[in-house]
Amino acid sequence: MIEDNWKYEVLKEETALLESGSSIYLGVVNDSLGLEFHKKMPKGAALRELEKSHLHLSYWDTPYYKEAIEKFLLKVDKEKTVIADIGCGDGRFTDLLLRLGFNKIIATDIDIKPLLSLEAHLRETGDLDKVLLINSGVECLPLKNNICNAALAISVLYYLNENYQKGLAEINRILNKDSIFINSEPNLEGALYRSLFFETLSDVFENYFEELFKEEKGDTPFKFRLFAENEIIKILGDNGFEVEDSHGISLFQSIVRIMMVREKLKEEDLTKNEGKIREIMNFLNESGKLYRNIIWQSRKIN
Is this structure's pTM higher than 0.90? Predict the structure, then answer.
């Protein structure tokens, strides 16, 4: 068992528990479009649960995210490192970090619902001593300066829209120099093709000229930030990070999921041919060039 002292060493002194008997600490939670969107979703950010849901997008995509993250963290000292899983949801990648051998993990999310699910899950697995749970937005984390040696923010920062760089600056603040930072963001080129195939010409123009994409079909207020590849490299550089590597998540999985939901592909046909479909996805994961999201691995240089 890991001593809980490490948690007190990284938290700001005034940080309190959410409530008596809870293992979740409370930071600053402000209303935002991203939080509103996730609260609206039936399962919120429950991607640990959804990756086990047959034919869900998380079911198709998660192996490729995990493979890339594991590669990017290969040389990190797992036993000595304090690592942050920013926007952890219900712990899809917190579970991965535990499996890789990390035993000092800070898991934060702005939405309390998936954190409660993660807390219950960690009690069941006996790993609660290894994970510090914090209900907080990324822009104002209740953590001391320079206390992490690595951090993940997988499909998180773009939900901040105009506060994107504020969130990035906060992650920089909690990281030591030379620390590894891994983030994934939606890719502009992939969004353009997706809108052209499945939405309207107006959506294509909104993708390109306003750098926004829709999280829902049709008319919706839930529109979030898009990035061209050279733009995200510059933004990371402007905020003290140097990109060292990247890995694209193919648009193919998203197309399969959309076509199934819209009844252009039959669930029984996908199930019958799942092995062949997965083989195609594996090929595109290695050799494809049209991405829905890109995972970036950078290092804090200042």
Answer: yes
